[in-house]
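From the methods appendix. Each design record in this collection lists the tokenized structure first, followed by the designed amino acid sequence. Records were kept in a plain field format so they could be parsed without special tools. The example shown here is representative of the layout used throughout.

RECORD:
FOLD TOKENS (675 positions):
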């Protein structure tokens, strides 16, 4: 019943603002969708046929899709792997493909999907479009009293932006192959099409070079992808219609290179792999021909390994200080009339560009590389603010947005969701807008390990995927959160550990299978946001334990988010059913501190969270009092409001690098009760 009331409220408070008649549980929402009211029933005899000009890719994906459906329904489908013999036009699902796609920017990803009572059809110009359609079909699978079915729909779909990426940094914390593969499976599920691998850093050179093997021998401490690994990643991604773009970050962020090849350095010193996170001075000496000879050999080798036409050279956060420390570099700059190290960076980009072009590559870099005099055929990745995106588009550089999509910063899903590469109030002309090709979520891994990385990527990135695929008018936050819950389960089913690892992390932390009181607390806290958790870049190194309460806590806690929303509705409506729901939560929180302390006795690592737990109990008590006053229409005693707000102020303090997410809601109750 409470659910029903909440459902009514959500309809009341946010009417959908898009034209689709229903969004089902689809994410991203298709360009156009019409439901017909039919139902296609799935039976053991379900089969897939492929006609037109099928490719190896579509056979593999159709086979994978068939098995995924069966794994969810347990129907024991009779059909095995799909091959060219499977071209029966009366198959339950008929896929019609005109040609194999070229995996490159602007390739056709459109498809149409028709599901009627008798047959489902996916029609696409390319196998890439058909693959996107297969993912839509997975998301359409529904149940009723008679079993499984696909709802009758007519879908006409096509992405808004051609570049829908995820940057995965494998250097600040090493990410083994299975992380990459499950990430690719999940990306494909929400129609993302670029995996940007950040492969080199101060801390690690994460890929094998056969030309300069010291790079991984000295710069990786065993944590790097062999060239065979890379080929496997590319093939795995290709099957799912995902491009892989490598990033080799230069001229800064390169301590690992310099430990292996100190002759590349601007300053002669002993180089060790960096263990802290942040921005450091080591930089390539870009005035030496040797550096370009080295980069030419390395980038030629890597260009042959990575088939994508884009090659990311980083270019971010070079401090210039090591260039300043080298008299030869200063003299070089003086001779060339360069006043700032930024001009030297520009020359660096200009000299790198032909190296990449010779290898058939287009250069891509962070927005620092957008400088006067930099050639036009480079892609700018905007990360320091949307201004650089606008500037790039105005200057006719292709560009994509990452500002607003930094998923490592623990911001809520709706913040990312409502960040649009081309917002409604854009100052760009229609022609200029065409230079903006999309965006990339960025998963920097300072504060995550393979155990926790999924909980930072998913499910929030699915909402970014929707922002980049669906129309800008698909922006109803309530509907997004509704669908995100379903997609989250789908992503877990594909291998993401964002839900299942929570139990393990809780048990390890509680040192017990009884984790209840810890979970109650974890469900209302979040790790400190933006760059606060790692204050001054000094709290953590690559060797730190990422197993503590801030690692179990996840962004955008649903219980806390819904509590805040319900408090606001309650304060305006005094609805009795909502009141009951709020009282239940508050009572649990109020009583949670004593059992939490029992867990801490077994698990001293949790001592850092005692303050959070105590504060939660205290403010929950204030919330109960507030509702009590509202309920009886009585005024709180003099001084209650002031004293209560003192307590909530204290409850905003962090503990264990986390903070409570329900304090503002309790303040709202205190204020409402004091009116
Ligand atoms: C970056 O976040 N340094 C591109």
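DESIGN:
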């Amino acid at each position: 019943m409470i659910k029903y009331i909440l459902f009514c409220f959500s309809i009341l408070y946010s009417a959908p603002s898009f034209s689709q008649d229903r969004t089902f549980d689809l994410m991203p929402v298709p360009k156009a969708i019409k439901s017909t009211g039919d139902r296609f029933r799935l039976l053991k005899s379900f089969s897939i046929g492929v006609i037109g000009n099928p490719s190896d890719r579509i056979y593999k994906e159709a086979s994978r899709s068939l098995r995924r459906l069966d794994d969810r329904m347990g129907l024991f489908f009779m059909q095995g792997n799909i091959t060219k013999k499977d071209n029966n036009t009366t198959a339950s699902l008929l896929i019609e493909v005109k040609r194999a796609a070229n995996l490159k920017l602007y390739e056709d990803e459109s498809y149409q999907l028709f599901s009627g009572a008798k047959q489902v059809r996916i029609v696409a110009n390319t196998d890439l479009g058909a693959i996107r359609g297969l993912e839509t079909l997975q998301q359409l699978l529904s149940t009723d009293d008679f079993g499984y079915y696909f709802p009758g729909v007519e879908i006409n779909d096509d992405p808004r932006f051609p570049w829908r990426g995820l940057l995965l940094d494998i250097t600040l914390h090493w990410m083994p192959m299975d992380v990459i593969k499950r990430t690719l499976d999940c990306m494909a599920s929400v129609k993302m099409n670029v995996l940007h691998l950040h492969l080199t850093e101060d801390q690690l050179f994460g890929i094998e070079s056969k030309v300069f093997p010291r790079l991984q021998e000295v710069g990786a401490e065993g944590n790097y992808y062999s060239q065979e690994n890379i080929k496997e990643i590319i093939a795995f991604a290709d099957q799912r219609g995902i491009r892989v773009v490598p990033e080799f970050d230069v001229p800064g962020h390169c301590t690992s290179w310099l430990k292996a090849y100190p002759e590349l350095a601007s300053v002669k010193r002993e180089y060790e792999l960096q263990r802290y996170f942040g921005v450091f001075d080591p930089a390539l000496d870009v005035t030496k021909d040797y550096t370009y000879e080295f980069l030419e050999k390395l980038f030629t080798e890597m260009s042959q390994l990575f088939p994508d036409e884009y090659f990311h050279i980083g270019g971010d956060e070079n401090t210039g200080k090591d260039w300043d420390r080298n008299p030869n570099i200063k003299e070089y700059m003086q001779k060339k009339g360069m006043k700032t190290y930024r001009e030297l960076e520009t020359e660096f980009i200009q000299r790198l560009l032909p190296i990449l072009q010779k290898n058939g590559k287009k250069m891509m870099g962070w927005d620092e590389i957008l400088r006067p005099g930099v050639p036009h055929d480079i892609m700018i990745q905007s990360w320091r603010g949307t201004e650089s995106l606008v500037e790039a588009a105005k200057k006719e550089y292709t560009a994509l947005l990452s500002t607003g999509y930094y998923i490592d910063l623990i911001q809520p899903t709706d913040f990312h969701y409502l960040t649009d590469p081309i917002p409604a109030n854009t100052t760009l002309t229609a022609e200029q807008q065409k230079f903006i090709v999309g965006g990339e979520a960025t998963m920097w891994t300072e504060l995550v390990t393979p155990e926790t990385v999924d909980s930072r990527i998913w499910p929030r990135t699915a909402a970014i995927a929707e922002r980049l695929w669906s129309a800008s008018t698909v922006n109803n936050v309530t509907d997004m959160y509704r669908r995100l819950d379903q997609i989250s389960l789908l992503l877990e089913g594909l291998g993401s550990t964002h839900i299942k690892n929570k139990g393990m992390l809780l048990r390890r932390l509680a040192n017990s299978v009884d984790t209840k009181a810890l979970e109650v607390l974890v469900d209302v806290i979040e790790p400190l946001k933006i760059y606060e958790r790692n204050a001054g870049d000094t709290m953590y190194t690559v060797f730190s334990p990422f197993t503590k309460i801030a690692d179990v806590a996840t962004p955008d806690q649903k219980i806390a988010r819904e509590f805040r929303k319900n408090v606001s509705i309650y304060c305006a409506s005094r609805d009795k059913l909502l009141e009951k729901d709020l009282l239940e939560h508050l009572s649990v929180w109020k009583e949670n501190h004593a059992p939490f302390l029992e867990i801490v006795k077994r698990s001293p690592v949790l001592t850092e969270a005692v303050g959070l737990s105590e504060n939660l109990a205290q403010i929950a008590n204030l919330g109960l009092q507030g509702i009590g006053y509202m309920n009886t229409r009585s005024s709180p005693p003099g001084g209650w409001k002031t004293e209560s707000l003192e307590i909530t102020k204290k409850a905003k303090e962090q503990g264990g690098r986390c903070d409570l997410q329900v304090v503002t809601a309790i303040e709202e109750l205190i204020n409402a009760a004091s009116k």
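APPENDIX NOTE: The radius of gyration is 27 Å.
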